[in-house]
Amino acid sequence: MRVGYNQATSMKHSSLEDDVGLCKAYGFDGLEMQTILMDKYMFTHSLDDLHDLFKNSGIKALPVNAFTDFNIQSGENRKRLQYLCGCAQAAGAEALILVPALQNISLEQTVEAIGGYAATAAEHGVRLALEFLGFAESSVKSLEEAIFVADQVPDLKLVLDCAHIMGGITDLSSILKLRPERIEAVHINDLRRKPPGGYSDSDRVWPGDGDMGLSEIFENLKVIGYEGIVSVELFNEEYWEWPTEEIYRTAMGKAAAFFRGCGY
Q: Across residues 48-54, what is the average pLDDT?
């Protein structure tokens, strides 16, 4: 299993150059770029610079996160796809994560949208990976729905975000229906139980600090033999106020302690 770091965990203080160095310093196997921070880097750098940044650091570029609202078909989205695939290719990232729109878009329309992107991704040597969002208004809101879409699109991978599993309507047993090679990455985070009304991204807490069944998710991943990327991804604005090195140190410490407890 490779433990990665997602820039959303320290979004307020993050930059691509700093995060590559911090990943190396704190023992992360790779960096999952948030596109808002990648865009900021690319405003003053070239694709060659991006390539050299990862090549010279020895840090692996994990799946680019993300092509948001991808299933709203438009000319702008096609331009965005070309750009994101080009950045992924330059950095050495093998996949681009697709995040669905928070709109009433059918699964069939979603399948059609992804099918239209396949050729562009293939030209850049990049895989596409669908991440469902557990929010009620999401156009792909559960693992079951994501599997339905992936079954219609050849070679489409899946990204499992633990908060969207625990805070949404996914049945944990659905993980057991997956072959491990269908999973591009897992985003690890935790949630604490709260009154009805739904969860937001900022409700995420460190792995092991919640009480909504994170261990059960990894028990099921262990059963199917998943040993791929597990990336620490939180959007907790309280943690964003911490010193950056403390965020990295805590992220690795909490993840490592959780994995030891799960027998990984």
A: 98
Q: 32, 84, 35: which is closest to 54 by C-alpha?
A: 32
pLDDT band at 264 (very low <50, low <70, confident <90, very high): confident
| pLDDT tens for each residue of 73-108 | 888 999 999 999 999 999 999 999 999 999 999 999
Give the three-class secondary structure for 231.
strand
Q: How far apart are CA 88 and CA 81, in angstroms?
A: 10
C-alpha span between 5 and 160 (Å, rounded):
15
Record the tokens describing residue 198, joined without a space. Answer: 């739904």
CB 192 within 8 A of CB 209: yes
- Cβ neighbours for 111, distance < 8 A, ≥ 6 positions apart: 149, 152, 153
Q: Given a cut of 80, is residue 17 above it in pLDDT?
A: yes
The answer to whether the peptide bond before residue 66 is cis (omega within 30 degrees of 0) is: yes
Q: Are 196 and 151 in contact (CB under 8 A)?
A: no
Q: How many CB atoms lie within 10 A of CB 167?
A: 22
Spatial strand order in the sheet of 60-61: 60-61, 30-32, 2-6, 229-232, 183-188, 157-161, 127-131, 95-99, 64-68
Domains with residue ranges and CATH for the chain: 2-262 (3.20.20.150)
The tens digit of pLDDT for each residue in 196-221 reads: 668 999 999 999 999 999 999 999 99
